[in-house]
Amino acid sequence: MPNSLKDIMELHWLFDMLNHIDLGLVVLDQNYKVTLWNSFMENHSGKSSSIAKDQSLFDLFPEIDKEWLQRKLDNVIALKTPIFVSWEQQPYLFAFKSYRPITGLADNMYQNITLRPLANADGTIHHVCIAVYDVTDAATHKLALSSANRQLEQLSKTDALTELHNRGSLEKALSIIFSAYQEKPTSAHSLAIVDLDYFKKINDQYGHPIGDLVLKEVAKLMSESTRRGDFVGRYGGEEFVVLLPNTSSEGAVSFCEKLRKKIEATDFKTDKGNIKITISLGVAQLTEQDVNTSSWLTRADEALYKAKTAGRNQTVC
What Enzyme Commission number(s) does the record list for this chain (predicted)? Predict the structure, then answer.
């Protein structure tokens, strides 16, 4: 076979491979006009090569951030080095629909982009190739994994029933406030332990599902009553903890009394009728005599015990 014919065949094969390879290939000149537009781009954009050729890329896709892409293309030509843009920096350059719009996790195709300079025989650069890689599967899997990890992390900090902070989160929050107080002991921080009065009777009379409903509703009322920056957690069973940073014992008692009266006035609606409930609260302000968070908690717990032995439905500091 003559060399010239062989060269033509190899060139034909090369163009056929470039045209049907499973990635987008776009070649732009220095004026950002399209000189090559392969079948990947045709299939996903809906724009044929005959339409795209000699057209400005920014006229074809006005939604592209023109200033951003021009700056990168100019840098490729000036520096004669490729530039890579991952989907994590920018989800996509071309807003192509995902292959799997029904079963997939993404509406649009996630893309990795490579901008590569194309050298002429004399070494000058007048064209840039944009390679578009479909990385939707990898991207969505990574995003799904990140989302799952965030949910697991949240679950590890949250009480499953009430969706309040759990005891582990409480211990961390107490440690943070305690450390801050050691650095600045002039600040006032208070802690309240809340216990539902005669809660066992509710479980015995109405059943545990109704008891769980009451716990959830009380937790909701507590969350709604706190300020931004306060900490509300479930301590265990029917006991809750409210951590009130930058709050004196007087301010904490005022907060607790408002909460106590709100819960006392609430009719908890259940499918077995309305239920009334009261709470008892013990308050302790952090002091220099507290050698650790346990002693602070113990003082609040002792105040709660006094509230319950004194007749319940009250706040003791």
Answer: 2.7.7.65
